[in-house]
Amino acid sequence: MNVQELLSELETFKTSLLMYQPFYAELLLNFPLKLSKEVPTAATDGRAIYINPGFFVALEPAQRRYVLMHELMHILLMHPLRGAERNAKSWNIAADIVVNRMVDDFARSLPGTMDSLALKRPPKGFFSKPNLHQSVEDLYTLVESGKIKELLGKTTRMLVDEPDLLFPTHADGTPLSEAELALAKRDIQTLLKQTLGSNKRGTDGSFALPRELMLLAGPKPINWRQILKDYLTQAVSEDSSYATPERKYLHMDLILPGHCLSEEGELEQVWAFVDSSGSISAQDMNRFITELHRIVRDFNCELNLCYWDTQVTDEYLRLRRPDQLLSAKPRHSGGTDISCVYRYVQEKKLRPYVALILTDGYFGVPPKDFAKTLDPRRTILVLCNNSENRIYKQIGRVCRFKGDGI
Predict the structure, then answer these.
(1) Which CA distances in Å does 147 have to 93, 95, 141, 142, 265?
(2) Most buried in the list 256, 261, 368, 403, measured by CB within 10 Å?
(3) Rounded to two decimals, what is the model's pTM?
(4) Same domain, 189 and 277
(5) Number of domains forming the structure of the chain
(6) Which residues lie across from 381 on neighbouring strands?
């Protein structure tokens, strides 16, 4: 397995989680995955997940997924941020005991028939005795006092002695101030609230947030579904700037004139046109599919998804279910000419209420009078890099996957 195959496998796991655990899938997509030979196995500084490609390739696929969730739990529990000024090795052991128990619980919640979602413990690690539910601070005290053997079940030592928690620092290596640590903690807490609010399930037991995360998220998660509906149904004038109070998610830009909703409050005729020329990374593509999943779920709508390069090559119509979205893959790749999107809309005589166009920004020149084909006020141009072109704002509302965008 080469590095690209490894990254593609992990991105596919994130996307597959949307069907069964969208809460964790959306959280995973908020933290970049970086390759680094400077970490012996895998690690996190609370802002990104680092993996040693040699270590990861040697693991089984289910073990790789376990380690990925292990690092995510460290981030969500703010272990790199909370461990400042403590003994790094002891803090790491205590934190690993906590997150491994949580990942074990998470693994049991996944459907046993889905091999692509199965998680398996790596060959070595710190795993607690059954029913050990102490806080990381209490466990740290016990580890420091030499009582580690009393905490562990049948397990072996880590592959290496270096901790997998990297305490965050500035670029020059200086530690973050107390104020900066507090701000970083607040950002993660806000992310937890937002993601919990957008994935709140009913009382059927299909979604059980671990107690540790519930305490960090707070007792009143934000209900993003209701907020988005409120935004969408407000009377927005034709000359509105469509400004939003927050640009965290792509589908928060879907602030359109009120008649884009049906009488039942459903969003109508959403079309997504995805550049399949090969210049968009698997990570950005999967993040975009995640946003499409949110739109379908939050607005109870049907989605039409088309891939394009120099022509619209693959079309998937009337999608609703997550499995339909996950199986809607591009089968062609070539150059890039955005004119084909407008030709397709004209030839099919389409009138999208919302059109989303994902591209790298290098797509040629749109046809003359393109605005008559796709209304710029109902078009969102999603750019996966920081390129600039004055034509962008003429095409539609601009969102970005990188920089200060979503």
Answers:
(1) 12, 15, 9, 5, 58
(2) 256
(3) 0.62
(4) no
(5) 2
(6) 357, 398
